[in-house]
Amino acid sequence: MSPDASVKKLSELAGSRLLVFDTGPIISFTLNNLLSTLEKLKENYGGRFVIPESVKNELVDDPLRTKKFMFEAIQIQRLISIGVLEVVEDTDTKQLTLELLRLANNSFAAKGKAVQIVQYGEMASIAAAKLLDAEALVMDERITRELVEHPKHLADLMEKRLHTTVTVNGQNVSLLQSYFSKTKIIRSIELVTVAFESGLLDRYVAAGEEQAIPEVRKKLLESVLWGLKMNGCAVSGKEIEQIIAAAPA
Length: 249
Hints:
Helix content is 54%, strand content 11%. A six-stranded parallel beta sheet has the order 1-4-3-2-7-9. A three-stranded antiparallel beta sheet has the order 6-5-8, with helices on one face. The protein is α/β, with parallel strands linked by helices. The mean pLDDT is 91. The chain has helices at 10-13, 23-31, 35-45, 53-61, 70-81, 90-104, 120-131, 142-149, 154-162, 170-180, 188-197, 216-230, 237-246, and strands at residues 7-8, 18-21, 48-52, 85-88, 108-110, 113-114, 136-138, 166-168, 185-186.
């Protein structure tokens, strides 16, 4: 049992409508001054926003020991304290997390050695999403998303990054696919697009701002999307252009 009373057992969250968050999207929201928007998104969603305990450690506990990211950690802890983010105990997801970690980090090899492609927190997020039957997993990191969505395509991406041949352990990849088959992935850019369409970003624009900045609302959306991209969200410039073009003025 965790010593932190705010950390919940899996059974306390089971059966709820919820999204599970990985570390990356919350960091992106924090660095782009969007945590208050995350609060409003949760209100509109009407369900629960959940993070594994290991993700909370990455977002709050570890940064609180530093000077550089202490302020960000305090802001995220506030969301946990007021219930915007709920923390699920790692003990309940540990068995599946370790299995996913073992399979993922032994699915691809370069120069005869297994390539370590994921960390514990990422797999804990996937495990929690699966065990809680989450509506979606919110994850930005491309390698992990490819592992979940297109594991057999990941070798090509890795070969480009590593500049060497990458071999695939087909048995492990097939097992991963069986675990991931029903896991839906969304990114921070999808959440921000929903926020924009719901008017949750309007507070950044003053009345009559069009006179000073033509098409200011589209420029606002563009700036936020590029901010998320620059902070780690896997999205292409072309995709950002398509989102902006489809957005209402």
